[in-house]
Structure of Lipoprotein signal peptidase:
Amino acid sequence: MSWRPAFWLAAILTVAVDQATKQWALSALEPGARHPLVGELLSLQLVFNSGAAFSFGNSSTWILTVVALGLTAGILWYGRRASAPWAAVLLGLGLGGAVGNLIDRLFREPSFGQGHVVDFINYGDFFIGNVADIAIVGAAVWAVVAGLMGRRLLAHEGAPGGHAPEQSAHGV
């Protein structure tokens, strides 16, 4: 069975929520001003990130754009091999997060391919992120936990119905 609808629905919803919340942040928040939500643990603070997490790679924005394009292509390639609906949703979340931040890199200031990502969720001065970041990290954690539990993310290549082939008691 194909899990493609779940994959695409998760990806599209993630991009839509990410871009909508970024637009809200741009219209409602003043850059740099902090608005506490849960004391010092969680606040809203609009910043423009030219780098990756923790502002890593600030001077290499175009490299991060190329990496995001590669990641997007990889998830698109492997997304068709999801082993189950949960795996399709997980891969769709990862794709949606990558595309959400890639849109910023491609189309926001200062220039095409070097745009700064809109971040606005401040996690107690640990880092500032956005909905796309939540989707990416959530998908990664979910994939690790599933792997530790012995759950397969991808079906075997060429297996009928997109599932791993059955084996007999003798492994044949």
The radius of gyration is 18 Å. The longest strand covers residues 42-49. The CA atoms of residues 5 and 46 lie 34 Å apart. Residues 159-172 have pLDDT under 50 and may be disordered.
